[in-house]
Specification:
Distance between the termini: 58 Å
Mean pLDDT: 74
Order of helices and strands: HEEEHHEHHH
Number of helices: 6
Helix content: 40-55%
Largest sheet: 2 strands, antiparallel
Shape: elongated
Oligomer: single chain
Structural class: mainly alpha
Number of strands: 4
Length: 157
Amino acid sequence: MKKDTQYIWIIVAMVILSVGLFVWFTYFNKPSTGGSGGGTNTGNTDTVVPPPPNTPSTAIPGTRVLKYGTAGRKVAVLQALLNHYKGENLKIDGDFRYNTSQALIRNGYCTSTGSCEMSLTDFVSLLELSANDNSFKTKYSPNTNADMKAVYAKYSS
């Protein structure tokens, strides 16, 4: 076999392997729902509650941070950000459910309740508003806000 042909076969094999890995991680590698096997533990204290039935996730892994059914500290921070900067009146409970979805829909972050997801970019953009805002930090600190304190206690490691 000529050397040029060998290089072509190596490139073809690498492309096939890359496509196969992409398909595997996108469609088949779902986190474990419990038990002793499967899934990964990233050390994150947020838990994920399954979305409602018939709600497919079309997001590419790693591009979405919060979606319907997610629960934890990040969701509580999102709820506080929406209340403070977007005029919402969400209960800060750390549960991404109907009311949080509706707030995101009203503010143009997603279009339907069951498949509502907030991208990492949008979350960081909203979070950056609080970087130098002492009124936000004071109002929503777990040290001064009972709801935020309860969420932090519930989802502590």
